[in-house]
């Protein structure tokens, strides 16, 4: 007797009509027509069953603070940083915890069960770190939350940036962050990358830096990050977030840079929603897109995963906690509209980001953790097109969220949208 069987599941890798049996929180079998019984069954009715979404880049300390203490009038990155600088000294730990938990509730309903969040360490009060460490514990049964010590105002540029970052790591923050392009000079940026990689090597931690989030083609801190990764033996443990300057770099230089990044095993984290919104702001026309070179990086074998980055905060007034919205934008901005392209984009929201986070037991294979999302879509292509409801979200074999199916959608197979005795729907097209 199994604990749970999900029947008639289509998987992201193209396998169709499979039953997935769960025992003790792990996948015990994936086969066609499992004859055994289970305490609970879900008929996926040939819909997509995916491992949960993984967001490798978020700011949970700022989320849902839109309008506090005022709106971002210009809508630019720099006004967003200034605005956050106004809110940060007056925000309380309780407010931070309350907003973060509200976001986590939203994330669970979206099937987003793994999140890496940056935590601003610029204010020496470090209420941000205190709050998110508490949130990390509270949401543990549902969401695996990784925290990055992020010196938003500059590791060297902020008054107590150096000591605050170390104190946050001492408190239990998991990952070393950075923002070299925001330091006062290129040299300070270079030096910050070296110092932060040294800290990661000494403490045995991963690195995840906001790196070259600018349209300046001469912002080349990713080169230093890759070189220091190799020098300190951190291959595979380092992520470069944003990397938008690569969009504007000279092609010859990039032809040297990408192999260096591959040698260093850099995990690349573009943030399509935020990059298309915030970059290219100094351009008239033509305007740059401001996302890094996703196709070229993937083709070179680098691990690329997409982040949501912001939801209703000083930098971005939109967002929904839906990683499919992120993938939808990535398809457009990277112009990756082919069938194989879209499959790669879906992977960048799931298996690639799981690799970035170093997750163990992730995936739909026997022995993996029984964590799933049942989507109201037949496959990954339809999921990316419709951003459909998450009919069931399952963590370690237990259903932790359900959504009613939407009706009246343009499903390609023309079927009514039903699952688990959902709404009756009579298709208009006979
Ligand atoms: Fe960010």
UniProtKB/TrEMBL annotation:
This is Amidohydrolase family protein. Residues 40-400 form the Amidohydrolase domain. InterPro entries: Amidohydro_3, Metal-dep_hydrolase_composite, Metal_Hydrolase, Metallo-hydrolase_Enzymes. The keyword Membrane does not apply. Keywords: Hydrolase, Metal-binding. It holds the Pfam family Amidohydro_3. GO terms for molecular function: cytosine deaminase activity; isoguanine deaminase activity; metal ion binding. It comes from the Bacteria. Gene3D superfamilies: Metal-dependent hydrolases, Urease, subunit C, domain 1. One of its GO terms (biological process) is cytosine catabolic process.
């Amino acid at each position: 007797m199994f604990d749970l069987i999900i029947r008639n599941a289509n998987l992201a890798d193209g396998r169709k009509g499979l039953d997935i049996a769960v025992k003790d929180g792990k996948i015990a079998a994936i086969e066609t027509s499992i004859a055994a019984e289970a305490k609970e069954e879900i008929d996926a009715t040939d819909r997509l069953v995916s491992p949960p979404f993984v967001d490798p880049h978020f700011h949970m300390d700022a989320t849902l603070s839109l309008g506090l203490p005022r709106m971002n009038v210009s809508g630019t990155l720099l006004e967003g940083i200034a605005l956050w600088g106004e809110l940060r000294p007056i925000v309380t730990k309780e407010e931070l915890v309350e907003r973060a938990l509200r976001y986590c509730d939203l994330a669970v309903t979206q099937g987003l069960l793994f999140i890496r969040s940056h935590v601003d360490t610029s204010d020496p009060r470090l209420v941000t770190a205190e709050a998110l460490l508490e949130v990390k514990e509270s949401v543990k049964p549902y969401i695996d939350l990784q925290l990055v010590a992020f010196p938003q105002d500059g590791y060297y540029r902020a008054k107590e940036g150096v000591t605050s970052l170390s104190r946050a790591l001492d408190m239990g923050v998991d990952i070393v962050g950075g923002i070299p392009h925001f330091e006062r000079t290129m040299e300070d940026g270079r030096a910050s990358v070296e110092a932060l990689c040294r800290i990661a090597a000494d403490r045995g931690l991963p690195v995840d830096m906001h790196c070259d989030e600018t349209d300046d083609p001469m912002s080349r801190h990713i080169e230093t990050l890759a070189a220091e990764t190799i020098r300190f033996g951190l291959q595979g443990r380092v992520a470069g977030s944003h990397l938008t300057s690569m969009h504007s770099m000279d092609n010859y230089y990039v032809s040297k840079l990408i192999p260096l990044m591959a040698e260093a095993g850099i995990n690349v984290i573009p943030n399509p929603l935020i990059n298309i919104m915030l970059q290219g702001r100094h351009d008239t026309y033509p305007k740059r897109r401001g996302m890094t070179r996703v196709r070229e990086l993937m083709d070179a074998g680098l691990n690329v995963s997409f982040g949501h980055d912001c939801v209703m905060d000083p930098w971005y007034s939109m967002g929904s906690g839906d990683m499919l919205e992120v993938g939808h934008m990535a398809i457009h901005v990277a112009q990756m509209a082919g069938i194989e392209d879209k499959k790669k984009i879906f992977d960048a929201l799931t298996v690639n980001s799981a690799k970035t986070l170093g997750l163990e037991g992730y995936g739909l294979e026997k022995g993996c953790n029984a964590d799933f999302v049942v989507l109201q879509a037949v496959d990954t292509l339809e999921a990316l097109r419709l951003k459909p409801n998450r009919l069931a979200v399952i963590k370690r074999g237990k259903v932790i969220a359900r959504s009613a199916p939407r009706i009246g959608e343009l499903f390609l197979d023309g079927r009514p949208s039903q699952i688990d005795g959902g709404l009756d729907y009579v298709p208009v097209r006979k």
